[in-house]
Amino acid sequence: MDSKTGDVIRIIISIIIPPVGVFFEVGFGLHFWINILLTLLGYIPGLVHAIWIIVKK
Prior knowledge:
- This protein is mostly helical and 57 residues long.
- It has helices spanning 3-16, 18-26, 30-41, 43-56.
- The mean pLDDT is 93.
């Protein structure tokens, strides 16, 4: 699978459930737990963080 195609799939998953998209990108790392916290505080901060993590890599 092409890297860009994988990124698009992870972004679509992140729109539905942000922590899952981050998990597919970095696993159970620090960013995953930060994203869980941000998503619990509000959907939008979790979504922005997830997309940022996916695009950054």
